[in-house]
Design a protein that fits this description.
Strand content: under 5%
Distance between the termini: 46 Å
Helix content: over 70%
Shape: elongated
Largest sheet: none
Structural class: mainly alpha
Number of strands: 0
Order of helices and strands: HHH
Number of helices: 3
Radius of gyration: 17 Å
């Protein structure tokens, strides 16, 4: 639920900034950094509160992080290539 919400937020922000390359890259990098910081913070808190469960939580976050990052990257790439193909001059 948390990773899905974060992914939707990032994708929405990316799609609103698709026309400006600098803004697009800044948002993507900033959102990814914030996402990693939040995940690390949650894993650290779980490590202090329930040390026996921290490995499972960390592996779960790793799996979801890889899945959502692949989805974000594929979505961003398809949006950028669609924009590029629509702005190319027609022969």
């Amino acid at each position: 639920m948390l990773t899905g919400s974060i992914t939707l937020f990032i994708l929405n922000g990316l799609h609103t900034r698709i026309r400006e390359a600098k803004s697009y890259v800044r948002f993507f990098m900033g959102a990814t950094t914030a996402k990693l910081f939040l995940y690390t913070l949650i894993i650290t808190i779980v490590g202090f509160v329930k040390p026996a469960e921290v490995i499972g939580v960390a592996l779960c976050f790793l799996l979801f992080y890889m899945i959502t990052t692949a989805y974000e990257t594929a979505s961003a790439f398809s949006a950028v290539t669609a924009k590029a193909s629509s702005t190319e001059p027609k022969p």
